[in-house]
Amino acid sequence: MFWKRKSKKQDGPEATDSAAEAAVDDTAEDAEEAGETEGAAGAAQAAEAEKSDKDEKTEKDRKAEEEDTEAEADEAGDADADDDSEDADSEDTDSRDDAEAEADRDTDEDSDDDSEDGDDEAGTSDDVFADDTEEAGVTGPDSEGITRVRAAVTFEFDDEKFEYIGNTWIVRADDDGVIVIDPGPDAEAVLEAVGEREVYLVACTNAYAPHIESALKIVEETEAPVALHPREMRLWRRQHGAEHRPDYEVEGGGSMTIGDLQIDVVALPGTSPGTVGYSISQLGVVFSGDTLRKGEPGMVGNTYIDYTTQLASIGESLLTLPPDTRILPDRGPATTVVAESKNFDSWV
């Protein structure tokens, strides 16, 4: 607020001057008041503008805070989504890992199964006597010193004739001698395969003709003894007469040492009461005669003489040998214990 001192009253021009001065003073005062009023109004407007600015700023701040809050919420949502995605990815990965592990196990099992089948097939296919061809001739010797002589057989049984290729086996006993098992019809082929070696023994699995036919011819040339089960003597006499008896009677459970080999006699009744097999564990082989051939029990002609007894002989005496034992029969290719064990249930 401006203030001024009042002047003394004057007459005439002075008075006019004073009046003018007063007018001026009043005008100035009015101007001052107006200025004060305008200043107050300006201050009010400034205050209002400042308030408006503050309100606007507050509103902006509020909006900014809301936006920040929304942004934080979005970030949190994105983080949760990322976590969910990571969890889903982890679950998918775990599922894939489990599936791959299961597939690997299945593959390993299949691989193991294939490996076992492969081992069975390899064990037979590596055998030089595993061929399915049936032609007369000589095969071997193999790595164990075993030779096979095949010859054409004509076998008469129950008034019928059966023709096939039969096996005679020559086994190296030591450097000087051999064992002949089941001498068939071709004595010359057998003696040629024996060569200069001595025949220590002629061993017969039973006395059907294909198993003993050339026995006496070989004995005449080599003076070798003959081994046969005593219950086969009747059939022997039909072929060779009563005057030429076998030198040794063999029965299941017995054993012989010939050269460097120990030969165990295996009782195999069924095709005939006195049928036997000859097992040589040192060589991992068993000579089964007509009891067991590859894939089937052997028949006499086209007949099973005593099928139940024959199956018992196969199951209890042959298939109880070590699984990798080779089975060398009177006809057909070689097989193994493990291969025929898989077939046994289908025969019962």
From TrEMBL:
Any Pfam family: Lactamase_B
Compositional bias annotation for Low complexity: 37-47
This protein's name: MBL fold metallo-hydrolase
SUPFAM superfamilies according to UniProt: Metallo-hydrolase/oxidoreductase
Compositionally biased tracts (Acidic residues): 23-36, 66-95, 105-135
Residues covered by region (Disordered): 1-145
Transmembrane segments: none
Metallo-beta-lactamase domain ranges (all copies): 165-331
Basic and acidic residues bias: start-end ranges: 48-65
